[in-house]
Amino acid sequence: MTGPSVVVVTDSSACLPTELRDRWDIRVAPLHILLDDADLRDGIDDVPEDIYARDGVSTAGSNPEELTEAYRNGLADSGGAGVVAIHISSALSGTFGAAEHVAAEIGPGVRVIDSRSAAMGTGFVALAAARAAAGGADLDGVAAAAEAAVQRSRAYLVVQRLDNLRRSGRIGSAAAWLGTALSLKPLLAVDDGKLVLAQRIRTVNKAVASMIDRVCDAVGDRPAGLAVQHVANPHGAQEVAGALAERLPSCEPAIITDLGPTLALHVGAGAVAVCVDLNPGGAPAGV
């Protein structure tokens, strides 16, 4: 029999594939999609496939009741070892603020980590924490593993259209040119938790090529965890993953998954993102 083990919690923005979530016993609190009079829980309720194309739709973070349930259940299942919760960047969602408040009410057995990222940028941090927990690390050790993974994280995004970004209000330094740059296909990056403009490019193909170059420059010849994610663009994601496999032979094949309905609402159809865990330890980060 194994002894008590720290439980890892994240939210549905992490877009963790089911097999990874189940393998590492990572608990997931849902974000929310608000459509007409319906409050749909990401990953639990049925969400229309074309949600990103609908008007009048908004999103909301995990609520305190859901976070409380996830943390208290995690504490009980941990046998007293504790809970480490990794959430979407505080600059992109109110989930982290709600999580901090809930954790303060529960007590020191719950540690909350700001991933300063989203999608598999958050997912890789959760995986690093879960691997540490499975290896027998205590609460401090699991939290430290998560914080280290935050520092290793890189994320890039190419969008096909600017409408969703303009409506979402989640864009940082690029906001000033969104209104006039309709012909541009921006390459965006996550910088200290904020979504910012990395490069102005005229075509999608050139933006994707630049994204691949930036990922390869960041990784170099080291092993790294890679995830390619998309909104209604599986072919584009497969092409990016293939290019990365060819140019980064030291890395395990990229995880390929969609961005989920909550993030899709903010970036729109056709978007392709790459999240990276630079993973200096050398072990495959995505498994």
TrEMBL record:
- Keyword ATP-binding tagged: no
- What name goes with this protein? Fatty acid-binding protein DegV
The protein's matches in InterPro entries, at most eight in alphabetical order, are given as: DegV, DegV_C, DegV_domain_contain
Q: Which PANTHER family match?
A: DEGV DOMAIN-CONTAINING PROTEIN DR_1986-RELATED, FATTY ACID-BINDING PROTEIN TM_1468
The source's superkingdom equals: Bacteria
* Matches recorded under Pfam families: DegV (PF02645)
Q: Name one GO molecular function term.
A: lipid binding
- Tell me yes or no: is Metal-binding among this UniProt entry's keywords: no
Keywords for this protein? Lipid-binding
